[in-house]
């Protein structure tokens, strides 16, 4: 398979997964705002932090109102990770590999793109129904992909892109709640704190599975442990890393130095996030552990890019890799 084809499949899946996650974030924020009363505005700005785009948002000088945050995440031309931008980039990647993906995949992605174009710019907060429809459109795209695309190298690259993006967003939204919007000490365990943890589970589509699998009261450690370390829930970090490892095993034969390097790095990530006890992560500081995870996911992206897409050098140990989502902001190279 040509590296440019693999690159497009990888980023096409990442962008669609990102849109689905952003729709989740906005839907849950709208629901939380109804319960937050006078603190409703505090619900919205952390969504920008969860996407890692706070500096870009602040540079726009647009304030922190719900409308400003929603506009930035949905359609701002200055935000390359906005929903409209991601759909455009996903479609551009798909357009360049039409001969590789299935007709059904192209038609679904093109339908999403054209509908957004026809609707034009939104002038107010997007409705819950509008976001739900877009989220279902993205889920339908992945369902079509899984039911029509052969389980060959192309599907594996699509899977890797999707799971890296998912793991990153799960970690980010958890970090935002745990570190950036921790309630005042007197509010810990209070009604708003409880609602925020429930909303975090809903953001990850994890509320029902958490209830069924843990059968415990909702607690910060229980929620964090489930979203990070559960090996069966499809949006947990552990599940995503296991899926990435399976795809990498399919794509590599461990004959080259870069195969070995990629395999070793991925094994280190999995040993930390699939075999550790949650108490060990807490003892090291959960915020610091999640920061390390996000840096690890970016470095994993760099390893994958260097092995399959380019001849780029891997960041040295201790160096901070470039944020992965900045790498393909202008479409396919």
TrEMBL record:
It holds the Pfam family Alpha-E. It comes from the Bacteria. Residues 1-309 form the DUF403 domain. Coiled coil: none annotated. This is Alpha-E domain-containing protein. The lineage of its organism: Bacteria, Bacillati, Cyanobacteriota, Cyanophyceae, Oscillatoriophycideae.
